[in-house]
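Please produce the structure of this protein holding SN-glycerol-1-phosphate.
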Amino acid sequence: MKVEERLRRIISLHGAAHLTLIDPEKQSPEEAGKMAWEADAAGTDGIMVGGSTRAGGKRLDDTVISIKENTDLPVILFPANETGISAHADAIFFMSMLNSRDTYYITGAQRLGAPVVKKLGLEPISMAYLVVEPGGAVGRVGKAELIPRDDKELAVAYALAAQFFGMRLVYLEAGSGADRPVPVEMIRAVRKATDVILIVGGGIKTPEAAAERVRAGADIIVTGTLVEQSVDRHARIKEIVTAIKAARTKKAKG
Ligand code: 1GP
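Below is the modeled complex.
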């Protein structure tokens, strides 16, 4: 089964999915494999691999291979640019940062990466990437014209544009390690206005924050920083996954 289809099935069965983000720059491939194994045991639905810096080449390949050796979960590339592609992954979020000021992050890296994705036979999952304040490293690197936290109309306008372009996923990103995740009202507004699969990530650290965002309409919650912690990693991910799946019945579909 294709990765996107698998995610859609999980969302329709459980109301929402959880993805674990692993940045290949932040630990050895062996450690990344261990992290993926623990996230799998904690109930995550897939592993995203990427970061906001140029983390490609052998380090990326070795990280993906190690993750694949440790889990049967789908591995989805989450590339910063055209260097973030590995033949060993199952799929790639083929993404465009629609609110970047630099065309490189909207269509430039994509133009360079698309032939490689085709050649390798990776499953491309089309996604709009929208960076919301505070935005963190990805906002700076991607030269994002950050969506203000109180401007849900702007987020809706971008998300609708993405849907009209035919993009099937929209990722609302507050930035890795953000002190405040994407506001619940913004998620609710985007959910109401669009039919896309809505991904939310950046600064989600507690089961409450995750569940609140699923109830507002998020289909997929991403956590990264959490899996980098060595203490209580399994327990922390497990309580977030449990909260996401339990939020199902209260989820507000638009
Ligand atoms: C970053 O949204 C992801 O791209 C995850 O963010 O590291 O804050 O969980 P955290």
